[in-house]
Amino acid sequence: MRKKLTISSLIVMVLLGILSIKPLLAQNTSTVHGKVTGTDGAPLSGATVKVKGSPGSVLTDEKGSFSISISKPNSVLIISYVGYIEKEVAVKNTDIAVSVSLELIETGLEEVVVIGYGTAKRKEVAGAVSTVSAKEAGANTSTNPSQLLIGKAAGVQVVQTNGTPGADAQVIVRGTGSFTSVDPLYVIDGIQGDKNLFNTLSSQDIENITVLKDASSTAIYGAAAANGVVIVTTKRGRTGAPKVTVVSQWGIARAWKQQKVLNAAQYIDALKDFAATSNTTLPAKFNTPDVLADRNDWQKEIFQKGLVSENNVNISGGSEKVIYNMSVGYITQQSTIRNLTNKRLNARFSLEETLGRFKFGQTLNIRQTNTNGSMSNIISAIGYPPYKPVYDETVLGGYSIVTNIDDFSNVDNPLQGINLTTQKNKEYVFFPQMYGEVNIIKGLKLRSQLAATIGGGRNLGYQYPHTASNNLGAARQSTMYYSDYSYYTFENYFSYDKHVGIHSLSATLGNSYLSAGNTTSLSGLGSNIPNDNIQNISVAPTQTVNGSSFN
Fold first, then answer.
1. Taking burial as the number of CB atoms within 10 A of a residue's CB, which of 17, 95, 370, 480 is the most buried?
2. H or E element that contains 113
3. Model-level pTM?
């Protein structure tokens, strides 16, 4: 009996202990209220407030106010805001609102930024230059270097050239550009390049990007800088033991918005209204229940969730006289359209040597892309009748079609473009660069640099025979396209930089030679191929070949 009482007493004590712990745990969590202002006393909206040692954070509202939970007494809050010095505040009493005033960062005006063939203090070119570091822009989430500039530089727009995976972006500096182009001039590590070279770089290899926007800062580059200048400084090796950095990121791409379209009944009603107002007679099938069935959502038929992955390895290091930096990155992007994938390999190798007053550097950038698949016509997915099935065995190619006579429409089946045509595109490009520099006297140096662009690619396509809408025949055919190009830039210039007290003198004298380059292309079309077993232009009875070459 005593033993039973003892066990019962222990159970009661444990339950009472658990119940007493709950209010203690609740008491350990408190809410801190406060306000963040600038040096002028104005509230800072969007300032970040987080508890030191905790992952979560909150943002201040339009009045600069915030509320954040702390789990232990004497916690430390970290308050940060772009352009202001980060501040830490200890919370001793949660009943008293925290008031924080942040100070402006003034030292940034003394920073040295890269400009045309030289450098300058930020305060001297504040309105003409925007500098974005890869760290500030979040390089770890960018698969394209152009993405580092989105929303980070005033007067700079970044627009995707098209929606295909791996497509380059268009950078526009203050307006729509000159009469001939909107592309700015790209300068990579002091050597002139183009958009192709810029997009060859991996975001992981970029240290910072400087955009020159006004006439005074771009004048030294002449007419080539009519649309602004984008100067890219890449990461360099540092003296010391080899350092290995590995970055791997994965994500999902999806069509974030789809158009709301009519269902079958609404579609038929719209056609009947149109026929009544235009005095048109509709086909007899529109008075049957068959056309009122909702058989497909064609946008769902062509869209998918695409996997996006990037893996990058960087190795850097060196000694006092030689430093090196090597990186290799591989990106795979599946399109939000079915059966379309882009794979891209980026590699960069750089070496710098210092021998007394001489300095030499060599860099090689490589990019290879492989794109498989064809784009679908999204307009067709929006306009194709919802009552039509996906497949129709009576139609050559196996997919349903519509005609003006039977359906009062000639929109193509959007799945025909995806599944009945194939495209395999491979492109490569090499960018070798080298320079030599010598310090002649104090403040005066001579630099010679040479850069080349060597690239090309091929595209192989095949179209299965099928019948398209309006009973238009699409014959079996094969296409191919080959191209290659090359050009180079050679520059020599003297630069002089002298500082006397608060005064400074800078001068640059030199010349640049930009070759026109060589371009060769060849395209072929083969039709009336007997079957689908050999999908090559070489077996086509009818062949058409076109070529061009110029420099």
1. 480
2. strand 112-115
3. 0.71
Instruction: Decide if 218 contacts 228 (C-beta within 8 A).
Output: yes
pLDDT tens for the chain, residues 1 to 551 = 344 444 444 444 444 444 443 443 344 578 888 999 987 788 888 788 888 887 777 888 888 899 888 877 778 899 988 778 888 988 888 778 889 998 876 544 445 556 666 655 554 454 556 677 766 655 456 777 887 777 777 778 887 777 777 777 778 887 666 666 788 888 888 888 778 788 888 888 888 888 887 776 677 777 777 888 888 888 888 778 899 999 888 888 888 888 899 999 999 999 999 888 988 888 888 989 999 999 999 999 999 998 999 899 999 998 888 999 999 999 999 999 998 999 999 999 999 999 989 999 999 999 999 999 988 788 999 999 999 999 999 999 999 999 999 999 999 999 998 999 999 999 999 999 999 999 999 889 999 999 999 999 999 999 999 999 999 999 999 999 999 999 899 999 898 888 777 777 888 888 888 888 899 999 999 998 989 998 889 899 999 999 888 77
Rounded CA separation 539/294 (Å): 44
* β-pairing verdict for 30-37 and 98-101: parallel
Rounded-to-integer distance, Cα 74 and Cα 67, Å: 16
Which is nearest to 291 in space by CA: 261, 268, 325? 268
500 CB neighbour count, 10 Å cutoff:
7
Residue with tokens 């919370």: 91
Helix, strand or coil for residue 101?
Answer: strand
Write out the E strands in 356-420: 358-372
How many angstroms separate the CA atoms of 467 and 86, rounded?
66
Q: List Cβ neighbours of 249 (8 Å cut-off, separation of 6 or more).
A: 140, 141, 309, 310
Q: Which secondary-structure segment (H or E) carries 493?
A: strand 477-500
| CA–CA dist 532, 463 (Å, integer) | 9
Beta carbons within 10 angstroms of residue 251's beta carbon: 12
CA–CA dist 217, 116 (Å, integer): 7
**Contact indicator for 201, 148 with CB cutoff of 8 Å:** no
Which residues contact residue 389 at a Cβ distance below 8 angstroms, ignoring those fewer than 6 apart? 295, 296, 400
> What whole-number distance in Å separates Cα of residue 382 and Cα of residue 363?
48
Distance CA 363, CA 326 (A): 10
Cβ 264 vs Cβ 291: under 8 Å:
yes
